[in-house]
Amino acid sequence: MDKHEVAKRIREQLANGTLPRIIAPLTTEPGWPTSPTGHISADSAIGVVRCAACNDMGAQVAYRFPDGRIVRFHGRCHRIWEEECLRSEKAGSRPQ
Ligand SMILES: [Zn+2]
């Protein structure tokens, strides 16, 4: 799947709440751990896990959020997701 396709899916999922929006790593607010949204961990089920962004199999990283939700991505899709989160933060609350 092409990067723009993935980015589009991610934006849709951010909009409808399927994907959480991460806190930008630059946040220095007290109380936030150094790793802003939990941690990336190697997933023991590599190869059979669906990526939350592009919906393909073989997600490589898992993000565990403070609310307990676990979202899995390919390394590439994770970067796109991060970019989209940052982009939507900069754009404020104005969805397209
Ligand atoms: Zn993916």
Folded structure, characterized:
This protein is an alpha+beta fold. The chain has one domain. Helices cover 31% and strands 11% of the residues. Strands 1-2-3 form a 3-stranded antiparallel sheet. Helix 1 crosses helix 2. The protein is globular, with a radius of gyration of 13 Å. Zinc ion (ZN) binds next to loops.
Number of helices: 2
- Count of distinct strands: 3
Low-confidence stretches: 24-30, 32-39
Order of strands, widest sheet: 1-2-3
Q: Helix amount, in percent?
A: 25-40%
What is the residue-mean pLDDT, rounded to a whole number? 73
What is the strand content? Answer: 5-15%
Order of helices and strands: HEEEH
- Count of spatially separate domains: 1
Task: Draw up the topology in text.
Elements: H1 3-16, E1 40-42, E2 61-64, E3 70-73, H2 75-90
Antiparallel strand pairs: 1-2, 2-3
Helix pairs in contact: 1-2
This protein binds zinc ion.
The site of zinc ion has 7 residues, from loops.
Any descriptors?
96 residues, alpha+beta, 3-stranded antiparallel β-sheet, 31% helix, globular, binds zinc ion
Q: Brief description of this entry?
A:
This protein has 96 residues and is an alpha+beta fold. The protein has one domain (3-24, 37-90). It has helices spanning 3-16, 75-90, and strands at residues 40-42, 61-64, 70-73.
